[in-house]
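Late entry, written up from scratch paper. The run itself happened at the end of the previous shift, but nothing got recorded in the book at the time, so transcribing now.
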Amino acid sequence: MFTCRGKRLKTIRTSLLLFLLVALVSCYQFVIDSLGIESGELLFHDGFSDLNSGWDRVQEQEYIADYAGGTYRIYVNQPNLDVWSNPGLEFGDVIIEVDATKAGGSDDNNFGVICRSDRDADRFYYFVISSDGYYAIGKVRGQEQILIGDDVMQPSLVIRQGYAHNHIRAECIGDKLSLFVNDQPVAAVSDGEFLSGDVGMLAGTFDSPGVDIYFDNFQVIQP
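Output as recorded:
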């Protein structure tokens, strides 16, 4: 979990050694090629009917992250708090898709997916939308939450607002991070700080507690 202070977040860019980045990405691609994994292949899928498929199962007063009747629920009952869950896997380049529906709480929220998370979730990329029609791509590094490409969350007409269902697709390919909502492109940015890690889902609040998001049909696809 990490706390956030609203949608106006500071952007900090971090440089890396280009040679190391290229070498590591090339190595990962060699492993994928040697294993015979083809583009478009389904690497992982979860419809959340199996309660032992690896996701967190936590029920606290401040938040709930648990299976719920064939879906996965993240309920956040504290202001300015984001909660996420991971299945405990490891990937490099991936495409992540999930269906998400708001069941309660303020429309001033955020929810979506993450990629390239380390074991302790101290660093990862996130792709989020809100129930009042905003989106963002960003990253967590330690205690920092950093938007990439914009200083604030941006509006989009393709995001269905209120209690509506949204299909979220995130692409983490090399240093390109792309967000699609309801099969429409929304944003694309570049950042090469994180190369591999776990995937997952997140939901969070701003000023008002009680955000309740249900996720379904989570899948990871080889680009």
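The radius of gyration is 16 Å.
(Scratch paper discarded after transcription.)
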